[in-house]
Amino acid sequence: MRHAEEGLEEIAVGSAPSSQPAGQDGDSGRPLPRPAASGPERVLRPEQVLPGGVRYAGEWLGDHLDGEGTQTFPDGGRYEGRFCRSLAEGHGSYVSSKGDIYEGQWVAGMAHGSGKFAGRAGPTYLGEWLHDKQHGHGHESWPDGDCYEGEFKEGEKSGSGRFVWDNGSMYEGQFSENSMHGEGVYLWSDGRKYRGQWSNRSCHGRGVFTYTDGCSYAGEYEHGQKSGEGTFTWADGREYSGCWRKGQLHGLGTYTMANGERKRGEWQEGRWVRWLQGAEERLPAMPEPRGLPGGLQAPEEPAHAAAARELGSLGRGMLSPQRSACDSPQALPDVSL
């Protein structure tokens, strides 16, 4: 997440030159209506140049921009909406010099409340904001078809959410700091599925991986690889249940044939070492559980995604939508033995 070059703080800087008496219209000198209160009258004045080359046309209350107005910045950025004590407050819209647009609620010169961000290059966010950051529930989408809907915290995906890639793959579950983290389900577009625990984009903890050909693995993962205790089941009924390390059979385990016959044995780094039943320590005439069917390839990041992440944000401090760690989950379950 990057900070922008332009500042929303600049929407409300400086005070007006005292070219008109406070409380009078800039052309006729007529007082403008305002809510009943003591103090100066709100007046409408023609465009004036403020410190820093900022131009403002609209309502004033004493020496403050207050009410409806339009402010134009030297770089071409433009804010139109409500002000309170020289800060954007209430409903308003801002178009940056790059063409990014935010329209929605403002508090003290910051995007705060409900609002919509539309980046010139395509990213769009519709939802809740807090102090210029995505915060609360929102929907974020990208021109290549990727989209996320769920919870945000201080500009990052955190909480429950659903991310869908343009190729149809989908993750639904918990996020933390823009990463898949906690309990969640990842479904590939070809039908493969992992349901279980995640840590920083990796399968970590207990989970179940299901293949399209009927095979499955249920057990422990560590940093994206099968590690610990787990059971792999083939579609024809064969099964290995035992120890794994770094994605490979390693340690003691039990191999069950399709006819129900079981053999307990030892494996090291994916290779069978010996059987442990009685004196029979030779490999019987049965398939050796060496390779699992099917490879696992995570959705690839679109070629332009890296460039999209470099988009500037709407205003200084305002965070534009970013996919970050969800662009392309690289550390997904390892399926090699």
Q: Count up the helices.
A: 1
Low-confidence stretches: 1-29, 278-337
Largest sheet: 21 strands, antiparallel
- Mean pLDDT over the full residue set: 77
Beta-strand share of residues: over 45%
Per DSSP E runs of 2 or more residues, the count of β-strands stands at 21
Overall geometric form? rod-shaped
Instruction: Give me the secondary-structure category.
Output: mainly beta
What integer value in Å does the Rg equal?
30 Å
Helix content: under 10%
Distance linking N and C termini: 38 Å
Order of SSEs, N→C? EEEEEEEEEEEEEEEEEEEEEH
Index terms:
repeat; 21-stranded antiparallel beta sheet; 1 helix; disordered N terminus; MORN repeat-containing protein 5; disordered C terminus
Describe this structure in words.
The protein has 337 residues and is mostly beta strands. Helices cover 1% and strands 49% of the residues. The protein contains one helix and 21 strands. It has a 21-stranded antiparallel β-sheet, with no helix packed on it. Strand 20 (262-268) and strand 21 form a beta hairpin. Residues 1-29 and 278-337 have low confidence and may be disordered.
